[in-house]
Design brief:
Blueprint: H1 2-11, H2 23-28, E1 34-35, E2 46-47, E3 66-69, E4 72-75, H3 87-95, H4 118-121, H5 129-144, E5 156-163, H6 173-187, H7 190-200, H8 211-220, E6 226-229, H9 247-259, E7 261-264, H10 274-288, E8 294-295, H11 306-313, E9 318-319, E10 338-342, E11 347-353, E12 358-359, H12 360-366, H13 371-387, E13 391-397, H14 410-421
Parallel strand pairs: 1-2, 5-6, 5-13, 6-7, 8-9, 9-11, 12-13
Antiparallel strand pairs: 3-4, 10-11
Helix pairs in contact: 1-3, 3-5, 6-7, 13-14
């Protein structure tokens, strides 16, 4: 109860809140009062009928009712009360990711599948529904208590980049390039062979080297991006990064660390061997010469509470994996950063979660969108989040912006989005 009131009323609304279980103290209080109980106590209260959830201390399957109310759906509907649903229990259930602790069928990568979520099943995965609830809750509170003043919020756009493979051909060594040439030869990909040789002989730029172009965009639109570098010590089936000990790779990372936020992109392998997480964080810290406090999981591979506990233990303060690696939308049903609640330990943690709503790889590989369709989707998320003064976080990969024919048009999608949409927010 303390956690969810802190999120909704303090962090998101900017008002101080204190809890009491004393009816006398509640009745005598002269300020704004929210009665979260089965019985009415005074005439000057806003009443929210409680569900059992926040009074429990174990994790059990919940009988979640979902009901249409106005322009959106609500969870834990009630017959009485000023809201006709328990906004505290509903928000806590979604933010804590309660359903991810319950038995479920994981996807092919062992992750919590979006098809298992109530947001997907009830059709509100593409809505920051907690922000909607809170917006209307604030209006009801202010109508009841006109003296209440809420914090002024402003829309924020935070671009983030996962640098899984910093260069397509450069700085990969003789063995990996020779292997690539052989594979292309066996497949009859003569254009790919020529492309690789032209890059290696410096006749043309590496197709994944788009860093100066991105720098110019950030400067033009006054953006403060986050870069997450995959620095696995050894290549693997899902980890194909350039060796982090290569001088050119380290120079690239240091270049971005000068003016931007740089974080670790824990490898797939680190999900099976925790010692590798420690090694990768140390590697990145040695390169940038400062503490690493930002993180996003490679392939959005994480499980709760284990992964987040490990990140906290390694000093991570800001986590950017809250979203799905299979579909775009709002995994935690919110478009605002929030502190993670460790449900198993029943405690609020210092880990600030930054939920993303759009990833280029989801749009391309999973949703099979064309560049034009992807532009429409990202514009939708922008418009939705701006209306509720939320924080829009997108994920991009450098290879989508290069000259690989497979990703033709994606560079233009990003440019047009920034020029036609984000520009007007400045």
């Amino acid at each position: 109860m303390q956690y969810i009131t802190d999120v909704l009323l303090h962090s998101q609304s900017g008002i101080e809140v204190s809890l009491t279980t004393s009816p006398d103290e509640f009745i005598q209080y002269g300020g704004a009062k929210i009665n979260y109980s089965q019985s009415s106590l005074t005439d000057d209260e806003l009443r929210v009928m409680p569900s059992p959830l926040l009074f429990e201390n174990n994790i059990v399957p919940q009988n979640i009712l979902c009901k249409e109310q106005g322009n959106y759906k609500v969870l834990f509907p009630t017959e009485t009360g000023d809201l006709h649903f328990d906004i505290f229990a509903a928000s806590f259930y979604l933010l804590s990711r309660y359903e991810e602790y319950l038995p479920h069928q994981p996807d092919e990568y062992g992750r919590f599948a979006h098809t298992e979520s109530i947001a997907y099943k009830e059709g509100f995965l593409q809505q920051p529904i907690i922000n909607y609830w809170l917006f209307d809750f604030q209006k009801i509170l202010q109508a009841k208590f006109p003296f209440l003043v809420f914090a002024i919020k402003k829309f924020r756009f935070i671009p983030t980049y996962d640098i899984d493979i910093a260069f397509s051909y450069l700085h990969k060594g003789i063995t990996r390039n020779a292997g690539g040439l052989v594979r292309s030869l066996l497949k009859g990909e003569l254009a790919a062979i020529k492309d690789r040789m032209d890059v290696l002989t410096k006749k043309k730029e590496d197709p994944f080297d788009v860093y100066e172009w991105l720098y110019a965009l950030h400067l033009k639109f006054s953006l403060q991006p986050y870069y997450f570098f995959l620095v696995a010590g050894a290549a693997g089936e899902y980890d194909k990064n350039v060796d982090p000990h290569h001088a050119e790779m380290q120079e690239l990372i240091r270049y971005h660390a000068i003016g931007y936020n740089v974080g670790v992109h824990p490898s797939w392998q680190s999900g099976d061997d925790i010692a590798l997480l420690d090694e990768e964080i140390n590697t990145l810290e040695d390169i940038i010469n400062r503490k690493v406090v930002h993180s996003r999981q490679h392939y959005i591979r994480f499980t709760l509470p284990g992964t987040y506990r490990q990140l906290i233990a390694h000093g991570i303060l800001n986590e950017f994996s809250m979203g799905y690696g299979t579909i775009n939308g709002f995994r935690a049903s919110i478009a605002s950063p929030f502190y993670w609640y460790d449900l198993s330990a029943e405690t609020k943690t210092p880990l600030l979660v930054y939920p993303f709503c759009f990833m280029d790889a989801n749009a391309f590989y999973e949703q099979k969108l064309t560049p034009s369709q992807a532009f429409t989707e990202i514009q939708y998320y922008h418009d939705v989040i701006k209306k509720i003064d939320g924080t829009m976080i997108s994920i991009w990969h450098n290879n989508f912006f290069g000259n690989d024919p497979l990703f033709k048009g994606w560079k233009e999608v990003y440019e047009v989005f920034l020029d036609e949409v984000v520009y007007w927010d400045l």
